[in-house]
Structures are given as structure tokens and as C-alpha cells.
Amino acid sequence: MTVDLHSEETLMEFPCDFQLKAMGHNTESFINTVFEITQKHAPDASRDKMHIKDSKGKKFISVNIHFEATSLKQLHTIYGELKAHPEVLMTL
Q1: How many CB atoms lie under 10 A from the CB of residue 6?
Q2: I want to staple 63 with a disulfide (CB 3.0 to 4.6 A). Which of 33, 34, 37, 53 is the partner?
Q3: Residue 19 is inside which H or E element, if any?
Q4: Burial bucket for residue 34 (CB in 10 Å: 0-12, 13-18, 19+)
Q5: From the first residue on, what is the mean pLDDT of each consecutive set of 10 residues in the chain (92 residues)?
Q6: pTM above 0.85, yes or no
Q7: Which residues contact 66 (CB under 8 A, 6 or more apart)?
Q8: Burial of 56 by CB count in 10 Å (0-12 exposed, 13-18 middle, 19+ buried)?
Q9: CB 18 within 8 A of CB 72
């Protein structure tokens, strides 16, 4: 079965509480990048709603941000911009 990722059909109901996760090198710049991109498209995102976790070797980190997602288009925009940024290694 082929799934069209650009379709507006989704099982999610908006607005909804959403957790974004991005992974990259353990730098303050990476943390700021993830936050700034997310907040640009989700103004209610705040640093108080961020959780940062080091990898076992502390070379990498994951940044989790909770925010209220308002649409599938908003999520596609955030993930697209994160994916295109050279500091972001992976998103979930």
C-alpha cells in the first residue's frame, strides 16, 4: 500500500499536544537551531517545554519540544525545515 505523505488526510485531530524530537551533535548551537525553527512555526513553543538528553557517549543529544500543533501543514513545515538544516541529523 502506498501512502501519500502530502495528503491532508490524517488520523490526528488538530489542535493537539505534540512532541517533536530532533537529534544532532551536542552543541548549544544545535539546541538553539531546533528551538528557533520550531518556535517560528509554533509560537507557543517555549524553552520550558524542552527536554534535552545526552547520548551515552555525550557526543550527540536529542531535543524534545512539546507544543500545540494546529495543522498537518504546520508539522510538515517544521519537519521540512529541520530536515534541511545541516546540524540536524535525524527527526522523529
Answers
A1: 8
A2: 34
A3: strand 16-25
A4: buried
A5: 52 94 97 98 96 96 97 97 97 96
A6: yes
A7: 17, 18, 19, 45, 49
A8: exposed
A9: no
